[in-house]
Amino acid sequence: MVDVTDKAVTSREALAQAVVRMRPETLDMIVSGGHPKGDVFAVARIAGIQAAKKTSDLIPLCHPLMLTSVKVELSAQGSDAVLIVARCKLSGQTGVEMEALTAASVAALTIYDMCKAVDRGMTIESVRVLEKLGGKSGHFQADAT
């Protein structure tokens, strides 16, 4: 791991996204609550939060962090996609971009896992950091796409 001993403790926050593309009828099933496995958004939200908390176990050399907040929001986008936005916060010596990216990615993978029996053609796209606040490098905002 990178030595962060001499870095100041500051408020840090990161937002990341992932997009899951699917057939319109798959999205309709999710949004209407008609999936036989239950509430897809609720399960994906919990999976994303749990993943953020375990990022250091999943990504080599990632610092274990004491996150103060993790939020995972899921919403239908158009007729064929789910947008996932994960927000992680802490006061610490290192950033939380990896935690936000992990949360968004695992939420997306959870949607894929729950829906793969009805739609094997789903894709996971646009996994990226949207914004980073705090720390030595300051503010980062991704370009709109």
TrEMBL record:
Reaction(s) catalysed (UniProt annotation): (8S)-3',8-cyclo-7,8-dihydroguanosine 5'-triphosphate = cyclic pyranopterin phosphate + diphosphate
Pfam families with a match to the protein in the record: MoaC
Entry's EC annotation: 4.6.1.17
Keywords, alphabetical: Lyase, Molybdenum cofactor biosynthesis
Biological process terms in GO annotation: Mo-molybdopterin cofactor biosynthetic process
Lyase among keywords: yes
Listed pathway(s): Cofactor biosynthesis; molybdopterin biosynthesis
Domain Molybdopterin cofactor biosynthesis C (MoaC): 1-135
Enzyme class name: lyase
A GO term for molecular function: GTP 3',8'-cyclase activity
Amino acids binding substrate: 61-63, 98-99
Function: Catalyzes the conversion of (8S)-3',8-cyclo-7,8-dihydroguanosine 5'-triphosphate to cyclic pyranopterin monophosphate (cPMP).
Subunit structure as annotated in this protein's UniProt entry: Homohexamer; trimer of dimers.
Descriptive protein name: Cyclic pyranopterin monophosphate synthase
Organism the protein comes from: Pseudomonas deceptionensis
Lineage: Bacteria, Pseudomonadati, Pseudomonadota, Gammaproteobacteria, Pseudomonadales
